[in-house]
Amino acid sequence: MVYWRPANGPSPDPPRKTIMSPTRFATPKIRHLCQFTLVAALVAAGGLAAQPQALAVQVEVPAALAAPAVDPCDSSAWADAAFGTVVLNEDFDGTDLPDCWQVKNGTWTVANGRLTGKGSARSRSRITFGQHLNDYRIEVTFRFDRALEDNRWAAFVLDIARDGSAPWSHALVRADSSLYASQIELARMKTNGSFWVHDKSELSTHIGIGDTTRAMVEVHGGLAYYYIDGEEVLRTAAFSRSDSGVLGLAVDGATVSFDSVKVTKLTPATSAGGCLPGDDTVRMGHTGMVIAHRGNDAVAPDNTMPAIQQAVDLGSHLFEVDIRYTKDGVPVLLHDSTVNGTTNGKGNVIDLTLAQVKALRVEYEPAEVYPDVRIPTLQEVLDYMKGEPGAAMLLEFKDEWPDDMLAKVSDMIKQSGVGDRIIAQSFSKSVLTGLHQLYPELPTMLLVAVLPSDPVAAAKAVYAMGINPSYYTVKQTQINALHAAGLKIFVWTLQQTDDEDKWRTWATLGVDGVITDYPGKLLVWQDSYNSFFHREGFECEAPEPLNLGPVSLTGAAQVGQTLTLSASYTPASATATYVWFRGSTAIKGATSTTYRVGSADIGWDLVAKVTVTKGSQSLTKYSNHVQVPGIASVTVEGLAKVGQKLTAAVVYQPHSALVTYQWFRGSVLVGSGDSYVVKAADAGQDMVLKFTAVHSTIASQVKYSAHFTPTQ
User: Fold this and answer.
1) How sure is the predictor about 283, in pLDDT bands with cuts at 50, 70 and 90?
2) What is the C-alpha to C-alpha distance for residues 15 and 8, in angstroms, rounded to an integer?
3) Which of 114, 125, 512, 622: disulfide with 257, CB 3.0–4.6 Å?
4) Is 640 exposed, middle or buried (0-12, 13-18, 19+ CB in 10 A)?
5) Who contacts 261 (Cβ-Cβ below 8 Å, separation ≥6)?
6) What pTM does this model have?
7) DSSP class per residue in 169-217
């Protein structure tokens, strides 16, 4: 079994207590050994594990815990409340603001069972309430009474300072407008007054002025799940949280009234499916690999041994380098096609021999830090990796490569003994297909500037284990599609050094790796993020196995009688669905554990299907078949013309009944059996088929076909 466990962050399933977190290792050298288990898993397994569902909240609220709301002003009461407790349930039945609800901007009034907030065109009205919770559900019933413009909004503030100051995080809904497709958002208000919108979408339902709507948001640390009228509309794993933030409501350029606000304390969320071995794909909410771009080029000359060594010493999961080849066919590390930009020489690398390239000095400021650095060969890097077990490489082939040079590089990697720690990437499709033919065990990834509309097809066309696009072209749906196909995605090149929101977006959407010029900063951020997200209490437990026992039908299979479906399953918290079938056709609307037999069921087999689900687990079984005895239909198929053969088509039950077929011309019996050849005497005459079935369950029943008149 393979566990893909990022060394500097959580595994795809939260870490067990029995496994030491690599982030706690004392030295980078030891840390590397654990880090590389991730790369080895990618390479050894081809990196192609199917993607489970993104994080899914499974909340069970025992009836016994549905207690009355606790004191809204007492933080300890909220902290001590049992999971499942309704800690706030406000319906605004008075005339004053509820206790400990604090207006921070705008006008907020209570009247006629509603809280009304008015926001002007120049300020965002807001009110705060409640106490800090890490895991909770907030339910709000509201309506837009007025909006200055169609794009004005109401927001359910999920983490805000008690004094109402920025920054804060919220779920937002805009007044309906054809001009604004993004009608719902999960966003963060920054201290400078601007928004960081990390998730947005268009609603499938219409919300206009005067429409009453129910919103619900479930929050688990940095995870948020947003529902409108019972339908999940957005989710994020990039939600910014604080250690003491409370709740609130906000209104911008509109008058919005709130009929009720309810808050329930929830149990911490776990990932769908629990701790399953073989799950080596990053999920939404977990940080992926940190890949040092051109080595650690933020502090050392790019594509040089010092840059590579620093990237490895930092704990980068992969170091990325570029290779070209010299005039005499030696692969060397260089990004540009010329040596002009990085050395004290000039010329195209393909026009220079290895000796000429090695004579050049890599220029870097300040010069005294790296006074005599040379362009390394690929062989030097492979030799370094032999002595550094924690080093793993993302090797980019620049431009096009002839077959003989691809073969040379393939042989070098094979002979090095470190091929299981290397992933190759290229913009060139011919390079990737050529590598696959020469060295099919070497995992490859397709580089693209813009993620194509069908990234799965693009990657599979060149035998790649994944696709690596520019980060700003990626959408969550494309990540999901790649993971569902068992493919990986690395995004490039994140260069921000001072905007945590950027890290949060791209490192937590579920991408499998982030290529960055600042691996040290991203590694530190990962440690901080993951230590909060997977703090004590979030250890993953294996899910309770799902079991589905015997499924059976009981009752009389007769018109007007009721059949009952029985199914036993565990755990009791699993969800069961039921579908009834008449023959092979699902009966519309028959989705409960009972079914009343109707006349349309005569002559058919009835069977029920039970599907039980829990998290990512699902089991399906069918019940025993029951027959509804009787004759359902009698028809005649074929051409009613002299010399042609007619065939009886009858639906009846049970099939063991004794049946007879009789063909009549007027009242005269002219044939028997399930077929009849039209005779000349039949032309122009009235004919009919009589069908008789005899069985203990149906006694004797007779049914006629429609009358027909044969022609010459």
Assistant:
1) low
2) 12
3) 114
4) middle
5) 88, 89, 90, 115, 129, 138, 139, 140, 249
6) 0.47
7) EEEEEEPP-TT-S--EEEEEE-TTS-EEEEEEE--SS---BT-EEEEEE
β-sheet bridge partners, residue 605: 627
Cβ contact 84:65 at 8 Å: yes
Please report the pLDDT score of residue 174 as a whole number.
87
Of 385, 302, 423, 475, give the one whose Cα is nearest residue 45: 423
Residue 44's identity, in one-letter code, is: A
Give the strand order in the sheet containing 195-201. 102-105, 124-129, 246-252, 153-160, 168-174, 184-189, 195-201
DSSP β-bridge partners for residue 580? 608
Q: How many CB atoms lie within 10 A of CB 159?
A: 25
Of 147-156, 228-237, 320-329, the least confident: 228-237
Q: How far is CA 149 from CA 152, 253, 254, 407, in A?
A: 6, 7, 8, 64
Nearest C-alpha neighbor of 448 from the set 439, 458, 461? 458
Alpha-carbon span 667 to 648, nearest angstrom: 19
d(Cα 645, Cα 654) in Å, to the nearest integer?
27
Tens digits of per-residue pLDDT, 432-488? 999 999 998 899 999 999 889 889 999 999 999 999 998 878 887 788 888 888 889
Q: Which tokens is 123 given?
A: 């300020």
pLDDT of 140 strictly over 50? yes
CB 209 within 8 A of CB 171: no
Beta bridge partners of 473: none
366 preceded by a cis bond (ω within 30 of 0): yes
124, two tokens:
């965002």
Q: How far apart are CA 430 and CA 439, in angstroms?
A: 14
